[in-house]
Amino acid sequence: MVLMLIFYSFIFLLDRISLVMLIENMIARRKNEHVIQLFENDCGTAVVVGILKYYGCNANYIRIRDAINNSDKGTNVKDIKLFFNKCNISSKIFKLPKSNRLNMLMNVSEENFPCILMLSGEVVNHYIILYKIYNNGKCLISDPEHSKIEKIELREIVETIQLIISCKVKNELNIPEKYINKNDNSLMMKLVKKYIQQIINIFLISVVTVIINIFITSIFGLAIDQIIPNIKTISFFLILLMIIIFSILGMSDACLKYFKFTIAQRLTNSVEKSLYSEYVHKIFNLKYNYYQNIKSGELMTRLKEGIQITNMISTILTNLIVDFLTIIISIIILFCISSTLSIVIVISCLLCGLIINYFFNKMVHSGYEISKSKAELDSEIISSLSKIETIKTFNEEEVVEEKINKLVESYIEKRNLNLELSKDSIAYQNIVIQLSNIILITIGILFISINYMSIGSLVIFLNISGMLFSNILEVVGIQVDIEMFVVGYKRFLLILNEFEIDNEDDSLFVFNEKIKSIEFQNFSLSYEANILLKDINLDLFQNSKNVVLYGESGCGKSSLVRTLIGINENYTGRIYLNNICIDNINNKSIRNEIIYLSNISTIRETSIINFLTDGKKIPMREIIKVCSDLNILDVIERLPNQFNYCISDDGMNISLGQKQRLLIAHAILKNPSLIIFDETFSNIDLKNKRLILDKLKNYDILKLFITHQSLDLEDANIFYFKNLKLIKKGE
């Protein structure tokens, strides 16, 4: 019964990851919530989600971000207030006077908490949640840039407070359903349910292992009590029997540990593979606007944090269960041997607990800063390598190196701080443990001298207490890892559960017909605060298969065509494909029919044939014809291995003109309804450009050209961007 109770306690612990989270979930509905910001200037979103969670609403981070217009420049306080009012949260904005600020805040009544503080920042303002102000001048805050809720001196922030935003629910929270997160965030419990049999097996093996370990630890003391009084009469066979028993127990322990680690390894491998697949599917199918906000280094860091789930599961299954069982059983045995000496153990454990408590939050925060610093370093390296040609062109290698070196120094400095904290914590704990051992031995010798305890019992007590201290220190170390893991785990879940997949709605229409018309109705286009087009009504391909868009740089040509394939949603009005509104069409099915080529389109590292066909079976004669029409066939045939020639990443080992012609060939072989050429001919010489344009007439494909150059096209609908309108030539 006791073992089953312990087992189910661990199952629940797996779902909540840490003891801290376990306790929090036993508290009433309104508990102080902490939400870590996902993007750089997302503190506004994080505090709004934190307030909603405080009032019991599992808010969707990404949709809240959109609702309060949180951009890479931050959030406007008025947008936060308006959103709160929509949710039946009474919200007012107060400005603190410059004088007597501290006293005014100290006199704020309890009913006004929680509230949001807007602090002045170096570049943009920063939002935090203020949960409580204590009589001693301290306050409880949730800073989205930090890893957890923390207690600080109020005077540390009082001078930087610009505004206070109140947020009290009037009667009942009334948040629109679309902002509520419907996904089940209990990933750990899903994993537990899936692998319950393996977990039970590991638990049972752990129980037997603990019992064997304690018996092995105790056997030497038992032997002493048997041998010393009977030293003259003890037989060789008795000694041999004890050696055999000890050996059998030792071998059994080794075998059980081997089986336990084997089961745990198979389980964690299976979990890791599943998480990798799910995460990779997610990040390659996100809505396009998410990629504009999150850096590639951040995505990799989130993946690393998510994969730590498997490491943590392995640690829990192979170490933590054994440690907890050992601690519980050891304490029971120690009190059975000597309650007096056990009190010394309890006092020592309490002292170690105080030391741990002192260093714990500092180590967790330091670990979070290390994680952030590593993400910044990874992002900068990835970004710099992707722009290496530009860096070399402008001779900026030293500038980039200096920036990366500063990030490396910052990362090492933060890591060293964490190591120093860990080293100090372990040193103080070891001092307590050594003093405890000295006291135990001293008292034990006194007990032996008065026949209150045997030598064997003291040896058993010291061995088990040593094992107890060892396991306590290991649990503490794991708990620090768990707390750090929880931070990354939450951010991993944010991407896995709250980021929306492009056209996730199954009710959307799958477009599987050739495009014949593209019509804009009451269409207006913007970029950030700039209006690019206003109230457009036109049919692009009316009476023609070719469209040309002319306009100055930045007028909105590319932004307009990107709306067709769902990678630009900054517009109002309607767009119709064959009289079907694209709002009702699955974007992936649209992208099967519309290929967008720009002057920055890239080629992944692969062979020419794999790039042209995407690994699909396309008749070779068709591939050769397309390449011949684009005047690239002779180039391919001169290359080593010809169509099997490996193109380096982004086509670094071929010319820009050759790269653009391969991209056009790739697009044609996909057999789309429409190809959009956004400055695609910019690096193709005039002779080849004319040849390609002439050959494109032979393909039953709509063509839309965006260019600064004059194109010699017959029967083309030509439009000019002028005064927020699209003016058709001849009208």
Topology summary:
Blueprint: H1 2-16, H2 19-24, H3 43-54, H4 61-67, H5 77-86, E1 89-90, E2 93-95, H6 101-106, E3 115-119, E4 126-133, E5 138-142, E6 150-153, E7 161-166, E8 168-169, H7 187-194, H8 196-227, H9 236-283, H10 288-293, H11 296-337, H12 339-386, H13 388-393, H14 397-449, H15 455-498, E9 518-527, E10 530-539, E11 546-550, H16 557-562, E12 571-577, E13 580-581, H17 587-593, E14 594-598, E15 606-607, H18 608-613, H19 620-629, H20 633-638, E16 646-647, H21 656-669, E17 674-678, H22 686-696, E18 702-706, E19 716-722, E20 725-728
Parallel strand pairs: 11-18, 11-19, 14-17, 17-18
Antiparallel strand pairs: 1-8, 2-7, 3-4, 3-7, 4-5, 5-6, 9-10, 9-12, 12-13, 15-16, 19-20
Task: Describe the overall structure.
It is a single chain. This protein is an alpha+beta fold and 731 residues long. It folds into three domains: 32-179, Cysteine proteinases (Cathepsin B, Chain A, Alpha-Beta Complex); 187-498, ABC transporter transmembrane region fold (Up-down Bundle), CATH 1.20.1560; 518-728, P-loop containing nucleotide triphosphate hydrolases (Rossmann fold). 55% of the residues lie in helices and 14% in strands. The strands form five sheets. A six-stranded antiparallel sheet has the order 2-7-3-4-5-6, covered by helices on one side. Strand 4 and strand 5 (138-142) form a beta hairpin. Helix 11 packs antiparallel against helix 15. The longest helix has 53 residues, at 397-449. It is globular, with a radius of gyration of 34 Å. The termini are far apart. The model is unreliable at 1-29 (pLDDT under 50).
